Amino acid sequence: MFGSSSKNKEKTRQFIAVTQASEAAASKLLKENVSSFNPAALAALFDKYKDPEEDAILLEGTEALCADLEVDPTDVATLVLAYHLKCENMCEFSRKGWLAGWTELQCDNLPAMKAAVARMRDELNDPDSAKKIYLFTFNFAKQSNQKTLSLESAIAFWDLLLAGKYTHLDLWKQFLEETHGKSITKDTWALFWDFVETAKDDFSNHDDDGAWPLLIDNFVVYAREKLGLAPAANDDDEVEQSLQQVAGLYQAWRQHLANPAMPEQDLRRHANDVRDILRNIAADLDELDETINILFGLARPPPAPFPSLSQVVQANPARFKLDRPQIEERKQFVADSRRIVEDMRTNINNPAAARMGGQQGVRDNLFGGQGKKKVDKFGRTEDEYKVSNQRFVEREQEQQQLLMDQQDQQIEEVAVTVGNLREIARVMGDELDDQTRLLGEVETQVDTTQNRLQDGMKRMQDFIRANSDTKQQWCIAILIVVLVILLILVLSF
């Protein structure tokens, strides 16, 4: 048994050291594979191709690996290899994914890897494996910081994975480039595989009410028009049946509403049932309106790049053997149905008004019933209320105009004040310039005076040094004494 010898334990230890897997996982993987597998050799191969600064195989390493495996980087086999090695981004193999993937494939050397890659194209012939690889491609191909896949990348990978497998692939790409022009969501990417697997070439089994993204439903309409196929049956009858159903529930709710003994809880339950059906009918009407716009607008070129199909004008109904009156009839049906739905929704959301017969019932109740001159309890007619309301509106408008005039005047006064402040600022700027000039002149004079003082001090020091001899000092002293004596003699006479 595996694990009974020290050699197998050593292999388990090496595998754990290389892959950082748990002991149980390492033992399981090694038990399931031949004993000749060498994890250290696999790790050495990773180190051969990995980037010098990062612990991952990046663009240059991927190119070198593909060259050694003798496979084109753009070959679909490279995509399958990325799936097995659990790549999260294009041209980037992590150490963990490399070791785990090649271990599962039992490849620890280039010849074994080359043989495995050569067999990988066959995996796309298996429906389960092909779908797993297709779903993996979305996250692999998109930018790591984005939630959607760019249209350019999506088309490239659809070409890689679905070329020769889907009859209308070129028409699908043309539809996206002409009418969509935006990135592809993960939901659309995933469900397009199911659509390709189930849709017939003439789209006769396509369910417009199925859980398909709107983009796929619009493609079916587009493809039918381009291929000259009959459009799908419209939803008029279905919506009309739903309206009849909800009308019965709505009338039952009105009856319950008029019954004071009806518990409030039951009344709310009936109202919620009606709301749910109204919500579904509103969604059906939106889809019907969208379909009408799509069916009759494809013949005219779009006015702007990549518009939505609902924005294309109705231009060529004859291609579907439908005349203008039929188009207008369907549009009128949608408009009428919307009004019915809105009236029911308004009353459901306002039971008090519904008890009086709806919004019109509220008005009739306010003015004392129907008649040529409806008078309320204060003796005023509806016309008098209208006149009064009109006068009130006019007074309010005059007041608003007066306020606007006052605001305009205040704005003018503010503008004058701003102008005065600007002039004051200009004068202050000129004064500051003059003061700066005067300060410069004073600084110059101070420097000149300082230089003169330094010269005077230097001369004084030279004089003091010149008269520092002792003999000269005695002579000066004797002369001073003689001078004093002469002054005394002069003053005594």
UniProtKB/TrEMBL annotation:
CDD domains: SNARE_NTD_STX6_STX10 (cd21443), SNARE_Syntaxin6 (cd15851). InterPro entries: DCN-prot, DCN1-like_PONY, PONY_dom, SNARE, Syntaxin-6/10/61_N, T_SNARE_dom. It is found in: Golgi apparatus membrane. Pfam families: Cullin_binding, SNARE, STX6_10_61_N. Keywords: Golgi apparatus, Membrane, Protein transport, Transmembrane, Transmembrane helix, Transport. Residues 37-224 form the DCUN1 domain. Its main location: Golgi. The chain crosses the membrane at residues 474-492. Residues 401-463 form the T-SNARE coiled-coil homology domain. Neddylation of cullins play an essential role in the regulation of SCF-type complexes activity. This is Defective in cullin neddylation protein. It comes from Polyrhizophydium stewartii.
